[in-house]
Structures are given as C-alpha cells and as structure tokens.
Design brief:
Length: 119
C-alpha cells in the first residue's frame, strides 16, 4: 500500500530529481549507473540525479532521459561537477525547465498537447 501511494505521486512527474546520499564516489557511480526503466511510468521522461561530494564541497549532476526526448541545454560541465553552489542552483533550474520543455516534444506529450489545444 505504501509503495502504491508513493508511486501515485512520483508517477505523474515529467522531470524527477533524485538526491543520492552516500560516500562521494559511490554515490556518483550510483547516479551514473541509474536505470530509468526501473521507474515505470508513462510520464517520467527525465531523471536528474544529484550527489554531494563532501571532500571538495561540490555537487555533481547526472541526467538520464528517455530516448524520445530531444537534446536540451544547457550542456553539463566536465564530470557534471559544480563547486559554486549558487551557480549549481541556477544551472539545475535552467536544465530542469528546458528538460520539461523538451519532453513536451515527445510523442507521448505532443499528442496530448495537440488534443488539448484543439478543444
């Protein structure tokens, strides 16, 4: 019952942010190896995985998206690593907004948008 309740909330998001807590390199490897197919949903198209590296006070971002989602910016820096926390916040916000806009171009959402606009 609890898992179904959680899925009801997670399953309806286009973009999902996942914070991975753990040892620095281990958490980053978990983010790199994340399999989006583990979360079954018709809506989830983009997964943004965030890890914190306490050894150098940086955040890392890994983005996984469905194959049908077109490329969207801004491009990630090398290793997806950010040392400036405010720059990371701004980058993440821009990346996620663009991710959602790109997801609207997929067949799943394009058809729904067209149907809604024709009403």
């Amino acid at each position: 019952r609890q898992q179904l309740e959680r899925k009801r909330h997670v399953g309806n998001d286009i973009v999902v942010i996942i914070f991975i807590d753990g040892e620095d390199d281990e958490a980053y490897q978990t983010a790199l190896n994340f399999n989006p197919k583990v979360v079954t949903s018709r809506f989830n198209h983009i997964f943004a995985l965030v890890t914190y590296n306490s050894s150098n006070d940086s955040y890392r971002l890994v983005v996984h998206s469905a194959e049908s989602v077109p490329t969207f910016g801004p491009p990630l820096p090398p290793n997806g690593e950010f040392f400036d926390h405010m720059a990371f916040r701004d980058f993440l916000l821009a990346k996620l907004i663009n991710a959602e806009k790109a997801a609207y171009c997929t067949p799943t959402f394009a058809h729904k948008r067209e149907r809604t606009l024709c009403l």
